[in-house]
Automatic annotation (TrEMBL):
Belongs to the class-V pyridoxal-phosphate-dependent aminotransferase family. This is Alanine--glyoxylate aminotransferase family protein. PANTHER family: ALANINE--GLYOXYLATE AMINOTRANSFERASE (PTHR21152:SF40), AMINOTRANSFERASE CLASS V (PTHR21152). Gene3D superfamilies: Aspartate Aminotransferase, domain 1, Type I PLP-dependent aspartate aminotransferase-like (Major domain). Keywords: Aminotransferase, Pyridoxal phosphate, Transferase. The lineage of its organism: Bacteria, Bacillati, Cyanobacteriota, Cyanophyceae, Oscillatoriophycideae. PROSITE patterns: AA_TRANSFER_CLASS_5. The keyword DNA damage does not apply. Its cofactor is pyridoxal 5'-phosphate. The keyword Transferase applies. Residues 46-346 form the Aminotransferase class V domain. It comes from Gloeocapsopsis crepidinum LEGE 06123. It holds the Pfam family Aminotran_5. It comes from the Bacteria.
């Protein structure tokens, strides 16, 4: 049998073995994976029901509970990026007609609005200028006004670099009998999180930021309260792939096939989580804080201003105001082309106004900050 579709000569690709540049990834993510994580990814694949793989899944669950500081039994890694885990929280908690209140102060709050609407929620929003956060009083008033079934907040808004404080929010949600859903994509591993102490019912994250792993296996967790709502729901979860009533049978005792797990990505995630445990979670948070303060100092020495008030700045993602008269895109391009360093531009309302600099996971170290500051010193006009 011969193939009928060929690559014609004009279009023929230069199919040499793959080579990719070794960039220093200091944008909003992905960040560079730890070398041990990349090594772990190269281990030979086993089957998704192999006893050694099932043991690894158990380890991932225990380690995720540790990094999130939760005892939720339904804590797993979703196959897919952070958006898949985000959708998993919505798909497993929103019933058509539920009022879902979303705090929007950046791009990812808006994504939650869009997603919840697609699952039939009656979405209400409260808003803040991009870069600011909601106070407990503002959240209380909003809960009184809207009486939602779910309050959704973004802990670390990657589009703005702001950290939404969550202390006391879970208690408020219990008072108003609603679930608390939190995006921890840019906080897990790099910013202190205490899911159980804060009363968070649903949370999701990603692998490619604070955990220092490639993208594709994304943390998901739900509390007993959220499980109860799911079990009482009359209809099936509208998303088959992300249905926790089915996925729970693969991750739990029954070990029923659901889909083929991305085996090698789970190796990577397990190794990334092990490295956090080896360092110690509190040490890992402290390292992120120490290195970002070193970055802030260096940026301010260069005369640059930071977008977010210090108290609410994320240790993982810094938004830097682009000075008047400087072409932000050209600077980012030059950093990439001449220095092999990636930084991000602004999103949405902050497009063209800020650069976004990530120091996450393995990249949160002085050895990442120094080359960036050195390059900026050369590239920025004096
Ligand atoms: C706060 C936040 N939520 C959700 C996502 C979506 O994650 P992913 O791009 O891994 O799908 C991102 C991605 O950067 C994010 O920063």
């Amino acid at each position: 049998m011969t193939s009928t579709i060929s690559i014609n000569d004009k279009q023929r690709l230069q199919l040499t073995p793959l080579e990719m540049p070794n960039r220093l990834l200091l944008g909003p993510g992905p960040s560079n994976a730890h070398p041990d994580v990349l090594q772990a990814m190269n281990r030979p694949p086993v089957g998704h029901l192999d006893p050694t793989f099932l043991k690894l899944m158990d380890e991932i669950q225990s380690l995720l509970r540790y990094v999130w500081q939760t005892e939720n039994s339904m804590t797993i890694a979703v196959s897919g990026t952070g958006t898949a885990a985000m959708e998993a929280t919505i798909a497993n908690s929103v019933e058509p007609g539920d009022v879902v209140l979303v705090g929007v102060s950046g791009y990812f709050g808006n994504r939650l609005v869009d997603m919840a609407g697609r699952y039939g929620a009656e979405v209400r929003t409260i808003t803040k200028p991009w870069g600011q956060v909601f106070s407990l009083e503002e959240l209380q008033i909003a809960l009184e006004t809207h009486r939602p079934a779910i309050l959704a907040l973004v802990h670390a808004e990657t589009s703005t670099g702001a950290r939404q404080p969550l202390e006391g929010v879970g208690e408020l949600c219990r008072e108003f009998d609603c679930l608390l859903l939190v995006d921890t994509v840019t906080s897990l591993g790099g910013v202190p999180i205490f899911l159980d102490a804060w009363g968070v019912d649903l949370a999701y994250s990603c692998s490619q930021k604070g955990l220092g792993c490639p993208p594709g296996a994304s943390p998901f967790t739900m509390s007993a309260r959220a499980m109860e709502k799911l079990q009482q729901c009359q209809c099936k979860v509208a998303n088959w792939y992300l249905d926790m009533t089915l996925l729970g049978k693969y991750w739990g005792q029954e070990r029923v096939y659901h889909h083929t797990a991305p085996i090698n990505l789970y190796y990577a995630l397990r190794e990334a989580l092990r490295l956090v445990a080896e360092e110690g979670l509190a040490n890992c948070w402290q390292r992120h804080q120490k290195n970002v303060e070193y970055l802030w100092e260096g940026l301010e020495d260069l005369g640059l201003k930071l977008h977010v008030e210090r108290e609410f700045r994320l240790p993982t993602l810094t938004t830097v105001c682009i000075p008047e008269g400087v072409d932000g895109k050209a600077v980012a391009r030059q950093l990439l082309n001449d220095y092999n360093i990636e930084i991000g531009g602004g999103l949405g309302e902050l497009a063209g106004k800020v650069w976004r600099v990530g120091l996450m996971g393995f990249n949160s170290r002085k050895e990442s900050v120094d080359p960036l500051l050195g390059a900026l010193r050369q590239v920025l006009p004096n």
